[in-house]
Each structure stands twice: as structure tokens, then as C-alpha cells.
# Entry
Amino acid sequence: MEQLSRTKTALGIAFVVLIWGTMWPVYKVSLNYSPPMLFAGLRGVIGGVFLALILIPQWRKIQWKKTWSIYLISTFFNILMFNGIQMIGLQYLPSGLFSVIVYLQPVLVVLLAWMWLKESLSAKKILGMVIGFLGVVVVSLEGMSGKISAIGIILALITGMGWAIGTVYVKKTSALVHNLWLVAIQNIIGGLLMFGYGAYTENLHAIHWNASFVWSLLYAGIFGVTLATAAYLKLMSAGEASKVGSFTFLVPMISVVIGTFMLNEPFTASLFGGMVLILLSIYLINHKVSRKTAADMGIRHAN
# Structure
């Protein structure tokens, strides 16, 4: 049973990082045909409605009167702060630098999980997070050229903080609300708010409804913001937030690798070096020290 559980966890993590890793190339395609906030709103509504239709037989599990505050708080952090602010912030910073700042998220999750969820915080785990973040920096070096603005950096920090707080909040409240309904409802509410903001600040007629845009919109909405997010939050609820969160360091790496093979972008020494650092980071954070080894070293077994 334990081996089966580990296999399911590994498959779930692989699904999440592969889907999220493909999102950046998909976003690049989508934003050629739509203003950013309108696209973010549409993909959220499409993904949320898709999941809600599947969940209709379980509508009683919404328990809105009892848990409405959880839905709204999660919407604020996971959708408006993460997805919404991200779309605005990308207009002020090079995508490489923006993603580096956003991927402070796994580091923040470790600290928040230690403070709010009482998860262990060992020197090895801290070292692993630092190495992982450095790996993201190295992987993203090629995308850091361009104009840098203070507002862009602030928005990137807000995006990463929103994602981290939202992730830990969902884990903390996972026993109180239906996980899949949370993903569906937060995307519907957040998507409608972002679309409304986009309709006010952007040009609706600037959307080009061609096959490439529709395909990328459906893929981003159904797989990116719904199925992958649902799997990620399920993994968070079942395991240590810091350990699951460490695997998100793989997302920018996979994104760059996909760009190398699908968009003919160069495979550089910085990409290889960053990959090595990220994989070392995940090993350090998730490797268990045996009880015998821990006793020999005179430390308390933390796993």
C-alpha cells in the first residue's frame, strides 16, 4: 500500500509539473491573440465551469453557507493575487526575471508551513530551498535581459507571496472544504472578476478567435488552471507542503526545456547548470535520513 501511495504521488507530481511547465509556451501563443487580463479571465471561467459540470452530482458538498469565507479567501490569494497580478506584472519585467521572483514561492511555503502548519524546518531543507531557488535563477538567466522596473519587481513579489499564502491556506483548511469544488468555484469567481477588469481596461475587440487561440485557451483553462491545480492542492493536502512545493522548482526548468525542443531555443550551459541545482535541491528536501543514521549523527529524526 505504501509503495502504491508513493507511485500515485509521483505520478501526480509529474502531471502537475509537466502541465505547468508547458504553460509558459502556451501563454506566449495566447497573448499574441488576446490582451492578458481578458485571457486570464476567460481561462479561469472555462476551467472552473468545466470542473463544476463534472462535480454537479456532488453539489451538496459545496456547503456555501458554512465555508463561503474559505472560497473567497482562496480566490483572493490563489486567483486574483497569483493569476491576476501575474498577468499585469509580466508587462513590466522580462519574463525570466519575473519567473525568478515568483519562484520564491517554494521558499516562502517552507517558512509558512513551519509557522502555520508546524512542519519541520531542518538545515538540510533550508539548504535545499536555497539551492533550488538558485537553480531557477540560473535556468532563467537567458530571459533576464530587458527593461527592469520597480513596479514590476513589486508585482512579481506580490504574485509569489499570494501563491505561497494561498497554497498553505488551502492545506490548512483542506479538512473543512471540498478540494475540487474549491478549485472550480475560485476559478469561476476569480475568472469573472479578472474578465470584468479586462473588459474595463482592455479592448474586447482585440481578441482574435482563431484556432490557435481557442486551442491554447482550452488547454490553459482545463489542464493548466483546473486539473493541474486540483492535483497540486490534493498533493498538498496529503503530504508536507514544503516537500510537495519543492517540486515546483521543476516548472521553469521544464518550460525552458520545452522551449529548446519546440521553439528552437538554445540549450545553454546555464540551463544545464540550473537543472543540476534544481534536482539537487529536490533530493535534499525530500531525501529521508534513516533512523539509524540519524541516531549515529546524534540528531532527531525529522521525517
Summary: The two ends are 19 Å apart (CA to CA). Residues 289-303 have pLDDT under 50 and may be disordered. DSSP finds 13 helices and no strands in the chain.
